[in-house]
Specification:
This protein is an alpha+beta fold. It has a single domain, classed as Sandwich (Jelly Rolls). It has 6 helices and 13 strands. A 7-stranded antiparallel β-sheet has the order 1-11-6-13-4-3-2. The longest helix is centred in the N-terminal third of the chain and has 15 residues. The radius of gyration is 16 Å and the shape is globular. It starts with 5 loop residues before the first helix and ends in a 7-residue tail after the last helix.
Length: 258
């Protein structure tokens, strides 16, 4: 299903800290995921405390329910998702990029509603993490809509995965998002627009961000995060399950804020 040559995406992931993966979902499969996604957004599938506003620093949203809607663990809330193709395909990509011991750490949905105009702050996922001896991790960001600069496609800083974790601070608003000093003018910063069904993968130290959505359409992303089975066990031993078992605001860690 993927259209990106394997060697080139593995090389880019290790050289640049991120890589487009190519197509992970066909147009018909994208339709199936969008339909489920919209049931989460309209509340038909109740996400309870796994739903929050990643953009709460921007204040009370006007019009939309959240500034940036984040739903942790969609596959636990709606296990039918595990019978669809994305989890197996993304797992294969994660293993190709970072090793055969990669397994799913957590998944999440991040939607930017039309005209919600709220950027996701610059950050490195590793700034959220508990201390782990093996920092291999792959985050696979799958576009379910055309993902463009104007609706909030991902930006990455090429080569930043090889640099220290920057000081991060709460982005404000009590939503749990963190931010660091960085901007679109950072050397190596580049947007990665995607077509529906395409994805981009990044590592734990790679600086990334997205602009707000200033368009008439949604920007729906399905994000799957992988690390080694042994490190996931260490995380879980420290009570870190990315909100699977408890209040997501209290334990948010690793991912956009996952
Ligand atoms: O979707 C976004 O705007 C941010 C996603 C993100 O930070 C991540 O997947 O780590």
């Amino acid at each position: 299903m993927t259209t990106q040559p394997r060697n080139s995406r593995r090389l880019a992931f290790h050289t640049d800290g991120y890589t487009p993966t190519g197509l992970l979902l066909s147009p018909d499969e994208v339709k199936v995921y969008r339909a489920i996604y919209d049931r989460f957004l309209n509340g038909e599938i109740d996400a309870g405390d796994k739903r929050s506003d990643l953009g709460s620093a921007a204040g009370v949203p006007s019009g939309a329910t959240e500034n940036i809607t984040q739903i942790m663990w969609p596959s636990a809330l709606h296990p039918e998702l595990l019978d669809l193709p994305l989890h197996q395909r993304a797992l294969a990509v994660a293993r190709e990029l970072a090793g055969d011991d990669m397994v799913l750490d957590f998944d999440m949905l991040i939607d930017k509603a039309p005209h919600s105009n709220t950027p996701t702050p610059w950050h490195q996922d590793a700034a959220y993490w508990v201390d782990l001896p093996d920092t291999r991790a792959v985050s696979i960001w799958v576009a379910l809509d055309p993902s463009t600069i104007d609706n909030g496609c991902m930006w990455y800083v090429r080569g930043s995965h090889g640099t220290p974790i920057r000081p991060h601070r709460p982005a404000g608003g009590g939503g749990g998002a963190i931010e660091c000093d960085c901007s679109e003018n950072e050397p190596g910063a580049a947007p990665v627009p995607l077509n529906p069904g395409e994805a981009a993968a990044h590592g734990g130290a790679t600086l990334h961000y997205s602009r707000g959505n200033s368009t008439d359409g949604h920007r729906r992303a399905y994000i799957l995060n992988y690390r080694s089975a042994a490190m996931i066990q260490l995380e879980r031993d420290q009570g870190m399950d990315h909100g699977l078992s408890s209040n997501v605001r209290a334990v948010r860690n690793g991912g956009a804020s996952g």
